[in-house]
Amino acid sequence: MKLGIMSDSHGRVGLVQDALALLRAVGAEAVVHCGDVGGLPVLDALAGWRCWFVWGNTDVPEPAWRRYLSDLGIDWPVGPLSIRVGHRRIAVFHGHERSFPTVLRAAEHDYLFHGHTHRAEDYRVGPMRVVNPGALHRVVTPTVVLLDLATDEVCFHEVNG
User: Fold this and answer.
1) By residue range, what is the domain housing residue 88?
2) What single DSSP character describes residue 58?
């Protein structure tokens, strides 16, 4: 499985659409958005993808959106996520959550994805690989990641909007 990872779109739906087109072109089969989505238009762009997302510190989701997301086939996140994709255990955070440092130190997942800092990173904490795809907003160069879960290969891609 090849996962596309993005974060910190802050409502920049055009860049999200460009990022999704790029990720599709390089083989992404599913997408993870690590928060600071920025509103329904970004979530609309994710419709039709197998996807997961978390809310970020700047997101202000309205209760009425819950049904809308359900109609799009997108699950409403309640806090950080712990998902299983194939045989991989993946934690998804925005990065501002109080539990983030604890989960990071515990290194009990195969991967931990997060955003928040607007800095692209790829490093390990023990056996756990930590990936921050960078950001689509408030950066010189917007970036996303393609992760091949079969090979553990992480590839950062620049998004040209």
Assistant:
1) 2-158
2) T
Domain holding 92: CATH number?
3.60.21.10
What pLDDT, in 10s, does the model give residues 95-105?
999 999 999 99
User: Which tokens go with 126?
Assistant: 């023990």
Please say whether the beta carbons of 99 and 80 come within 8 A: yes
Residue 154 near residue 131, CB atoms below 8 Å: yes
Helices (H) and strands (E) in the chain, counts: 4, 10
Q: Are 147 and 154 in contact (CB under 8 A)?
A: yes
- Residue 123 to residues 49, 131, 133, 150, Cα–Cα distance (Å): 27, 7, 12, 18
Residue with tokens 């928060």: 35
Question: What's 77's DSSP letter?
Answer: P
CB atoms within 10 A of CB 100: 17
Q: Which two tokens stand for residue 8?
A: 């910190």
Count of structural domains, the chain: 1
| Segment 87-130, tens digit of pLDDT | 999 999 999 999 999 999 999 999 999 999 999 999 999 999 99
